[in-house]
Amino acid sequence: MNNRKNGNGIFSSVPNPIRKRVKTTGSGVVSADVLKRAENVIIKLADDYLDWAKSDLIRLQYTYEQLIENVDNRQENLDLMYTLVHDMKGQGGTFGYTLMTRVGDQLCRFIDHLDDTVSISLQDETIQIHIDAMRMVLTSKIRGDGGDLGKQVLKGIEAVQKKIRREKNK
What we know:
Elements: E1 2-6, E2 9-13, H1 17-21, H2 32-69, H3 74-94, H4 98-112, H5 120-139, H6 147-168
Antiparallel strand pairs: 1-2
Helix pairs in contact: 2-3, 2-5, 3-4, 4-5, 4-6, 5-6
């Protein structure tokens, strides 16, 4: 991500992951013109990312509430949460929200490795902490890795993960 200052504030440009993912030499190359058009589409879509992610976050919070209230459908709700978070983390990386990607990745891994050695209350608390961190990234419009704030968020998530490891080892 490129940040530059002028007299009016800090401007951030969306990183360009497309250029890194396509062939620009050899057989099956993507022409510079096609690549440029794709990059322009992503730049335009980046403005809409926050709206999409906020909508996804509302669905994620609702699904979390269903997880708490509807124990009989716990696995179904966990699966839906995983899918929502997986999409959010992928989009975060595409549009320059690296911290969203990192938090989302941690939540996906947590959901993916759930077992009955961790109490349901600690599972639920951990999921809500991740959702709250994702909400903070969106409401504060934190691009990139979030700097010191991003480090604090990830450090908090790591503290929760340590608590879980201690409970598993009891």
